[in-house]
Design goal:
The protein is α/β, with parallel strands linked by helices. It has a single domain (about 5-195), classed as Alpha-Beta Complex (Spore Coat Polysaccharide Biosynthesis Protein SpsA, Chain A). Helix content is about 35%, strand content about 25%. It contains 9 helices and 12 strands. The chain has helices spanning about 15-25, 40-50, 75-85, 130-135, 160-170, 180-190, 205-210, 235-245, 250; strands at about 5-10, 30-35, 55, 90-95, 100, 115-125, 145-155, 195, 200, 210-215, 215-220, 230. The strands form 3 sheets. A 7-stranded mixed beta sheet has the order 3-2-1-4-7-6-8, sandwiched between helices. The protein has a 3-stranded mixed beta sheet with strand order 5-12-9. It has a two-stranded antiparallel ribbon with strand order 10-11. The radius of gyration is 17 Å and the shape is globular. The mean pLDDT is about 95.
C-alpha cells in the first residue's frame, strides 16, 4: 500500500479525539495533528493515547475568525509547511477534524496511486447552490456550470498537495473562503484533479444523491460499501454526530 501521512489542523475540542479514535481503528500509519494554541500537557496526552505527532501552533486569537475574503486560507499555509519540511511519505491526506470520521483505511483508496490531486465532491453544481456560488463572486461568470468540491479534505502526492496548499494560503482569487478558492482551481485546471467515489465523501448533497445509512454506517447506495472518510459539513453535522456520538472517553483528557 502507498505510504501516507494523515494531517489534521484545528483547535482542541472533544471531537478531536473522535477523529483520532476512528482514524486509529483503520489506519496505523503516521499522523500529524496541528493543535492551535494548545497546552503541552494536552499535546502529550493525545500523542501517547493515539500514537501520533501533536504539534502546537501558536497564533493570534483571530486565527479562525479572520474576515472574508480568504477565511480559513491561512490553515493551508500550515499544511504547505508540513508537506515541505516534515512529511516524508509519498502521499498526504488532510481533513477537517471536528466534523470528520473514518470508516476505512484511506490507503486502500490510493490504489492505483493517484497522479492527480484527490478532492471530495459535494455532488452539486454552482448553479444549484446559492452559498457556494455567492462565495465565488465574479468568478462564477467564468465557471457558471462548475462543480462544487469540499474545502475540508484533500489527498495526493505530498509535493502536489504542497503546491495547492501554498496557492490557497495566499487567497489569490480574492474569494470568501478557502473552499471557493479550491473550487476555482478544480474547475479551471480540471485535468489535475480527481474524485474517487467512496473515498472522501461529504454528507451534504452526496448522501441524498448516491449515499445511504445502513447499520450505522454511511455507505454507497448502489454497492453498500462504506464510505472511507465522512465529512458532516455544515447543517449535516448533527446527522454525523447521531451516528458517531462524542463518547465520555473522547471528553476525557488523560
Amino acid at each position: 500500500m502507498s505510504e501516507l501521512t494523515v494531517v489534521g489542523i484545528c483547535t482542541y475540542n472533544p471531537a478531536v479525539q473522535r477523529w483520532l479514535r476512528t482514524l486509529r481503528v483503520h489506519f496505523d500509519g503516521p499522523c500529524r495533528l496541528y493543535l492551535v494554541n494548545s497546552p503541552k500537557e494536552l499535546q502529550s496526552v493525545l500523542a501517547q493515547k493515539f500514537h501520533c505527532d501533536v504539534i502546537d501552533v501558536q497564533v493570534t486569537p483571530d486565527y479562525w475568525a479572520a474576515p472574508s475574503p480568504g477565511r480559513f486560507c491561512r490553515v493551508w499555509g500550515c499544511l504547505a509547511d508540513a508537506c515541505l519540511e516534515h512529511i516524508s511519505t509519498s502521499f498526504v491526506l488532510r481533513t477537517d477534524v471536528w466534523d470528520v470520521v473514518f470508516q476505512g483505511d484511506p490507503r486502500l483508496h490510493l490504489n492505483p496511486p493517484p497522479n492527480k490531486i484527490l478532492v471530495a465532491s459535494e455532488s452539486v453544481s454552482l448553479n444549484e447552490d446559492n452559498s457556494n456560488r455567492g462565495w465565488l463572486g465574479s468568478w462564477h461568470r467564468i465557471i457558471p456550470h462548475g462543480s462544487v468540491v469540499n474545502g475540508g479534505m484533500i489527498c495526493g502526492r505530498t509535493t502536489d498537495v504542497a503546491v495547492v496548499a501554498k496557492i490557497l494560503d495566499r487567497n489569490p482569487f480574492g474569494t470568501a473562503f478557502d473552499q471557493s478558492e479550491l473550487i476555482i482551481l478544480r474547475n479551471i485546471f480540471d485535468e489535475q484533479f480527481e474524485y474517487r467515489s467512496g473515498f472522501m465523501e461529504t454528507i451534504y448533497k452526496t448522501l441524498q444523491v448516491s449515499g445511504a445509512v445502513e447499520q450505522g454506517l454511511f455507505v454507497n447506495r448502489s454497492t453498500g460499501k462504506p464510505w472511507c472518510i465522512v465529512h458532516g459539513n455544515g447543517s449535516t453535522k448533527p446527522l454525523l454526530d447521531s451516528h458517531y456520538p462524542i463518547t465520555e472517553a473522547d471528553r476525557t483528557i488523560g
